[in-house]
Request: fold
Amino acid sequence: MFRKLISTVIATTLVSVYTYSLEWDPRLNDIYVYLEPANVAPGQPYWCLIKAIYQDEHESGGNHNIYYTVLDENGNPVANQEVFQGWPSGQTSRPTNEQGQTDIPVWGNNWCPVTGPGPYSAWVGGLPSDKVCGMGMPCNLHVNYLLTWKRTIKSAPSGSGTISGTVRDATTGGSINNAAIEVKQAGTVKYSAYSGSDGRYSVTVAAGTYDVVASKSGYNMETKYNITVNENQTVTVDFSLTPQTTQDTTPPPVPALISPADGSSTANPTPTFTWGSVSDPSGVTYSLQVDNDISFNSPEINVSGLTNTSYTPTTPLTANTWYYWRVEAVDGQNNHSGWSIKRKIFISLPSPTTSLKLYPPSPNVLDLNTIHTNKVLLKYAVPATDEVELKIYNIAGELVATLINSVKSKGEYNAYWDGKNLMHEYVSPGVYFVYLKVGDTVKIEKIVVIK
Reply:
């Protein structure tokens, strides 16, 4: 919201401080041109603006100038009076001619009034001067500004007081420059001003009760109600404007899945799912879904708000089943990245557990008459890699034969005994024992030899 001055009325239309009437073209209000009154004490001379006329693109004759006219107290032209034109990065000046007039061009600068006041200002040198601000070529149209100043003695307004204060940023505490101040009665703007670079403003008003509004692009407007100003009183009204916040609608990136690999298999029913991290200024959490249905109609795992980039289920998944999984990121503004690509993993049946075993000999009765066609099968299982001894002993505890004496890895094995002893001779009929030792554990089975 920008200051709009009241059009073509006497000085009280501005701030009741002008001795002379101000003729103000109301079209200047539409392009946010405004008057910055001279800072001068009563009784002191200054350059008082008495006329501000706007010529649009149909009236300007193709020109784009600020035309200056400078008059003395009696309304006579002031020759050789330096006048100024300023813009954000500099200023220039020219002297008036014998008719008290001169002109200085303005340029485009790609300014359109929807963005606020224009870049150019104009004033008269030598004395404090009213300054016309916010001029330029609106949307690069050729327009003119016809401005007239008169040397005036500042008079003290009767029945008036002052509203002044500072406009600050509520977040940083810093001063806010160029904040618009509007002083209203019954919703109508009576007086207006802008804050300076230090955030301060001052408005002279007729004694009365007002609502005072401070506004600035990018901030929330603030209003102070029922401010009473008495004659010759200065009332302080400070403002603390809160910056406007813009809702972030940009989603975070989609996370990349890392493991398990797509199509892989594991016997672990609680595999760890891992994905790549993504970042967002407002922070990121993750959601994970795991389901045996590719459409994820009723996910078996459906967790959200994860801050880490991995998750291990607490409930085992079903064995001998394919599962699909996917991840999405959610930022601090509740923007969702959308789900990642799907991966699948097979939960296989667990491997059978192997324990130390010595199975009964087959056959457990060895007939020496048929030994050439019928050896004894000795089957055993080893639970882990270890030293293995497989031997035959007689009933007296004497070693008869050594079949295995080596390191074996986990698994099941077969060995055979042909009924012979260490001398490769057939043993005598009787009872014999199969002795299996793996590590410190021993298993024993019995064989009967007949003839």
